[in-house]
């Protein structure tokens, strides 16, 4: 079964935290490819000041030398709010029902998962790989959840990565990755203050930001 990982987000801008997480999950869960999907109009964030085209261009530069990483711009070509369920339905129409799709998600984002548009349908179309905070186990993480999501997590949870490879959708797993304390917010602030962002993100992305005078 073909296995595809999905990493969505504003990528405003993309940095090594995104890239390292994607690489470690791809390795641990034996993914054939990872699709980076920039969000055009994210429902849970304020309006993004940098255009989707610029953010997609930075992703493309950041992943250029990794043959397993690809840029997927489908959300940029849709009007309206960028809902995950619509993206998954579009991917299923393209890839078929037998491909394993795994949505990468931070454990913090999962605490609000029940507020997502048509959230209970999402598991019909993909797996979810939750990224744990360092030194947090499954039970500790579930204690941070509202009861509806705690029950949802336990109903779908697996620690066996092979479950995600052998079925197209329906499982939630939790993984720890190298903790890189890098945030897009801090990077934007650094550019505004003319501070160095070297080693926080690929040089090609830094050069693009400077060329187009973003975040100034």
TrEMBL record:
Its EC number is 2.7.7.18. GO terms for biological process: NAD+ biosynthetic process. It comes from the Bacteria. Keywords: ATP-binding, NAD, Nucleotide-binding, Nucleotidyltransferase, Pyridine nucleotide biosynthesis, Transferase. It comes from Methylotenera mobilis (strain JLW8 / ATCC BAA-1282 / DSM 17540). Pathway: Cofactor biosynthesis; NAD(+) biosynthesis; deamido-NAD(+) from nicotinate D-ribonucleotide: step 1/1. It catalyses: nicotinate beta-D-ribonucleotide + ATP + H(+) = deamido-NAD(+) + diphosphate. Residues 6-189 form the Cytidyltransferase-like domain. This is Probable nicotinate-nucleotide adenylyltransferase. Pfam families: CTP_transf_like (PF01467). The keyword Nucleotide-binding applies. GO terms for molecular function: ATP binding; nicotinate-nucleotide adenylyltransferase activity. Belongs to the NadD family.
């Amino acid at each position: 079964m073909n296995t595809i990982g999905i990493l969505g987000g504003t990528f405003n801008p993309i940095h090594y935290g995104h890239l390292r997480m994607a690489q470690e999950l791809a390795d641990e869960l034996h993914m054939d490819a990872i699709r980076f999907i920039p969000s055009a109009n994210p429902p849970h964030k304020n309006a993004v000041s940098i255009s989707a085209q610029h953010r997609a261009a930075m992703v493309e530069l950041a992943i250029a030398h990794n043959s397993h990483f690809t840029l997927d711009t489908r959300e940029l070509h849709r009007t309206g709010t960028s809902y995950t369920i619509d993206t998954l339905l579009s991917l299923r129409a393209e890839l078929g029902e037998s491909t394993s799709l795994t949505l990468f998600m931070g454990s913090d984002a999962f605490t609000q998962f029940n507020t997502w548009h048509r959230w209970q349908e999402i598991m019909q179309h993909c797996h979810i790989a939750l990224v744990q905070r360092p030194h947090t186990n499954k039970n500790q993480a579930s204690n941070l959840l509202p009861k509806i999501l705690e029950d949802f997590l336990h109903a779908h949870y697996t620690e066996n990565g092979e479950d995600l490879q052998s079925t197209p959708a329906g499982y939630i797993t939790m993984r720890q990755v190298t903790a890189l304390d890098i945030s897009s917010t801090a990077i934007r602030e650094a550019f505004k203050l003319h501070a160095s962002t070297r080693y926080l993100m690929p040089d090609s992305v830094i050069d693009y930001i400077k060329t187009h005078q973003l975040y100034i």
